[in-house]
Amino acid sequence: MDQLTGFQRDLLYVIAGMDRPSGQQILDDINRYIDQPVTHGRLYPNLDTLVEFELVEKGEIDRRTNYYALTPKGRRILEQRQEWIERYVDA
């Protein structure tokens, strides 16, 4: 988790909170949270990095739309991060 950017960690949380979201659904959700609008040019390379790290699985919904889902490794890393955060911040 320490090799990820804050933005990439935020993407993991968004993906974890949705059921196999498309890139557009992730973009819409993250843009409700982040003050500076996120572009496709920022989103998709970061999603690809999470796929390369085997934290996120990328699959096809249809010919134009992909879905993203946490892998078991991604879920485990996110849970470990959450436990670490809760040691320092009241839940």
TrEMBL record:
Classify the source by domain of life: Archaea
Stored Gene3D superfamilies: Winged helix-like DNA-binding domain superfamily/Winged helix DNA-binding domain
Give one Pfam hit by family name: PadR
> Residues in domain Transcription regulator PadR N-terminal?
12-79
The name on file for this protein is: PadR family transcripitonal regulator
Task: Give the originating organism.
Answer: Halostagnicola larsenii XH-48
